[in-house]
Specification:
heterodimer, A: 363 residues, alpha/beta, Rossmann fold, 2 domains, seven-stranded mixed β-sheet, 11 helices, 15% strand, elongated, B: 368 residues, mainly alpha, two-stranded antiparallel ribbon
Chain lengths: 363, 368
């Protein structure tokens, strides 16, 4: 025992102590960096934005919209970009708990999982925080949900674009993200029932799953093309799936033989619009959606909206809201066609991006 | 103090004569644990002043930063499990997926009509069995544990995904959610902390107080020497994989209870944080050295770091960078002090490659 203590030289003791102090200093430095951006005025509405993960162009467009309209709705700006570095439902829970302890007024989140954050969000609501979900819902624990667009409308948009180009008796295939992704499942169901009712001569190839990873989507799309030689159109319905599918079609020099019609944002796909491998994409205006988040946050904090009520965004969102209605309705019950349930606000009709207009949007 | 000293003497008894360095090695391990305790105290003191909700509704309240352990304690449990494997000089990359798979298994059993506690026991037992199979494959076919458990990760995550179908199972009995998840003992001590404390004590006793634990560390330190000394190397390694899978299975139950749902992708994100805790805790990534209390303390340092920084207004990105800096900085300091004591990472690497060199004496016949 004594032996080993003697071996512990004074130098290494100093090294250990110095190391510990250096680490503490590093910690303080980080905190200072963060604190300067988090400083907030007291009177404005404190909105916490929580995304599925960091760095997706669509979420950055949401954030841009939120910040553009923040001042008009009395929301403290700039609104920080929250969300785990990689998509992780447990990471979102940690963020929510931090938001609760920071006493924000509204949490606006798009969830990685329909169940996992429920307990934390209920805790937030109990603490008097309004919870607004958008894009991906946590149905059991939120005040309002902003649904991107009616499931039926966007599904019809994709199918109609594909039928217009490839005819109404062809083989189509869907490229999705994961087999459990809530929104994608709803879109698939809407597309399949629309086709069944309106275009009975369309056949389906088995659904491919790209796991929201471009490389996997590419492999899956190539597999789909090889396994189904008569396929006429592939319908990728997730951001990574669009890139992977369009890349697969251009790689296999199938441009012109196989059309790609999907749901996604135009900016990451400019190459494919330009080379013709991508025909049409449907989405909503992400910047406008960010502005609606502000508006709903404002209305919710002031208790102005409830199930069944209609509201206008009085201050007038500055630029976005393309195709947005003049007023919004808070759904009072479940609607099978649109996919809405109680306290859902449907944001807008889909926006169609083609070779003609894709350069106009930066998300 | 006396206990620590005893661990030291026992753990190196086998080769004390041949390798006087081991004595010093153990000294550096113990010192590392004290350094970690110091870092934890500094961290908590800092957050005590920096985070207004540090105490929140008091200890145990999930609003207080100190009480929200339910967000990381299951990661600590996974860390304790994978630690056994790392001690033996192997690695288990399947632990994250294993916890997710065990959760889905339990949920599907329960939703299929089974009593929840029977489902829990069965799911953990099956997880242990899968650990046993992985261990058998690794030792019998002499495959790298890294590759076998990587394959295990893919298989388990995909199996969980296939099993749960389009809607991951959710909604368990309230008493289950409370007992393994968010409940507290007498409103103050989180239940998960009690579960973790039991597992931590168990792990400490297994590694530092049992014959198996001694052999585990020796196998990790020098597999050939352990074989010559009559240790059943394969059996020891397989046991480590079973323990790893069992701990991951128990963690999976706690995850399911905390969120009242089971999902294939709840587990895998916990793998790297768990390994980070083991390495920061001072366990040699090549096996054969380290102390369990170090891992326990390190898992608390890391567990509180992210929520603490977030609640202080730091963004997620910076919080991740802080963890990287903490790991890199502390391991560098450890490397420097270890080298002063005559045991360097380079030595460990050399020792490892030496055992794999052709022409080295043939390993002792394995008693498996």
């Amino acid at each position: 025992m004594l032996h080993s203590i003697q071996k512990w030289g004074i130098r290494s003791r100093i090294a250990t102590a110095t190391g510990a102090v250096a680490l503490a200093a590093a910690g303080i430095a980080f905190v200072t960096i963060g604190s300067t951006t988090a400083a907030a005025k007291s009177k404005c509405i404190k909105l916490a934005l929580e995304f599925k993960l960091q760095g997706l162009p669509v979420f950055e467009a949401n954030q841009k919209g939120v910040n553009e309209a923040a001042k008009a709705y009395g929301i403290c700006s700039p609104v920080a970009y929250g969300g785990p570095a990689t998509a992780s439902a447990t990471g979102q829970v940690t963020d929510i708990q931090a938001d609760i302890s920071k006493h924000v007024n509204v949490i606006a989140m798009t969830s990685d999982d329909p169940q996992v954050p429920a307990a934390a969000l209920k805790q937030a609501m109990k603490a008097g925080i309004k919870v607004v979900t958008f894009d991906s819902d946590v149905p059991s624990a939120r005040d309002f949900f902003i649904q991107d667009t009616a499931y039926s409308t966007i599904a019809q948009g994709v199918i109609n674009a594909a039928v217009k180009a490839e005819g109404s008796s062809a083989e189509f295939g869907i490229m999705s993200s994961t087999p459990t992704a809530t929104v994608q499942l709803a879109w698939i169901a809407a597309m399949q029932s629309y086709v069944k009712a309106k275009y009975p001569n369309i056949t389906w190839a088995p659904i491919g799953y790209g796991q929201s990873i471009v490389a996997t989507s590419l492999t899956q799309a190539e597999a789909m093309i090889h396994a189904n030689p008569n396929i006429k159109a592939i319908l990728p319905i997730d951001g990574a799936a669009v890139v992977g599918t369009a890349e697969a079609v251009s790689d296999l020099s199938d441009t012109g033989k196989i059309g790609v019609f999907g749901i996604g944002d135009p900016e990451p796909n400019q190459t494919y619009f330009a080379n013709g491998s991508l025909t049409a994409l449907e989405l909503w205006n992400e910047i406008g959606q960010g502005e609606l988040i502000d508006c709903v946050a404002y209305e919710a904090v002031n208790n102005k909206i409830h199930a069944g009520s209609t509201f206008k965004c009085a201050h007038g969102p500055s630029g976005g809201l393309v195709n947005g209605p003049a007023k919004w309705t808070v759904a009072s019950g479940t609607n099978a066609t649109t996919g809405a349930n109680k306290n859902t606000i449907i944001f807008s009709k889909p926006l169609e991006f083609t070779k003609a207009n894709y350069l106009k949007y930066d998300f | 103090m006396a206990t620590w000293a005893r661990w030291g003497t026992v753990s190196v008894a086998v080769e004390k004569q041949a390798r006087p360095r081991s004595e010093r090695r153990f000294g550096t391990d113990r010192r590392w644990v004290f350094s970690l305790v110091f870092i934890l105290v500094v961290e908590l003191l800092f957050f005590n002043f920096a985070v207004s909700s540090f105490w929140g509704g008091g200890w145990g309240s999930s609003v207080s930063m100190l009480g929200d352990g339910e967000n990381f304690l299951f990661t600590s449990m996974i860390a304790l499990g994978v630690m056994f494997v790392i001690f033996a000089g192997d690695i288990d990359l399947s632990v994250g997926a294993m916890s997710g798979f065990a959760g889905v298994m339990m949920a599907e059993f329960h939703l299929g009509g089974m009593n929840i506690w029977v489902a829990v026991v069965l799911a953990v037992a099956i997880a242990a069995l899968i650990g046993l199979i992985q261990g058998l494959i690794i030792t019998y076919f002499k495959l790298e544990s890294l590759l076998v458990t990587l394959a295990g990760w893919f298989i388990l995550q995909s199996a969980a995904l296939a099993w749960e179908g389009a809607v991951p199972p959710y909604g368990f009995p309230k008493h289950f959610d409370s007992l393994l998840g968010t409940g507290t003992v007498a409103g103050t001590v989180p239940n998960q902390l009690v579960i973790f404390a039991i597992l931590a004590l168990l792990a400490t006793l297994i590694v530092h107080r049992t014959r198996f634990g001694r052999q585990l560390v020796l196998v990790g330190h020098n597999r050939d020497a352990a074989g010559y000394a009559g240790v059943r190397v394969s059996v020891t390694r397989i046991r480590a994989f079973v323990l790893s899978a069992t701990f991951a299975g128990i963690a999976g139950m706690c995850i399911a209870a905390t969120y009242s749902t089971a999902d294939d992708n709840l587990g895998p994100t916990l793998l790297l944080p768990a390994i980070t805790a083991v390495v920061l805790g001072g366990v040699d990534i090549f096996g054969g050295a380290g102390l369990v209390p170090g891992v326990i303390v390190a898992s608390f340092i890391l567990g509180w770091l992210t929520p603490g920084l977030l609640q202080d207004g730091v963004s997620d990105t910076w919080a991740s960078i802080a963890i990287g800096v903490l790991l890199l900085g502390s391991l560098t300091v450890k490397g420097i002090t270890d080298r002063r004591q005559g045991v360097s990472m380079l030595d460990r690497l050399r020792a490892r490659s030496a055992t794999a060199t052709p022409g080295a004496p043939p390993p002792a016949p394995d008693a498996t």
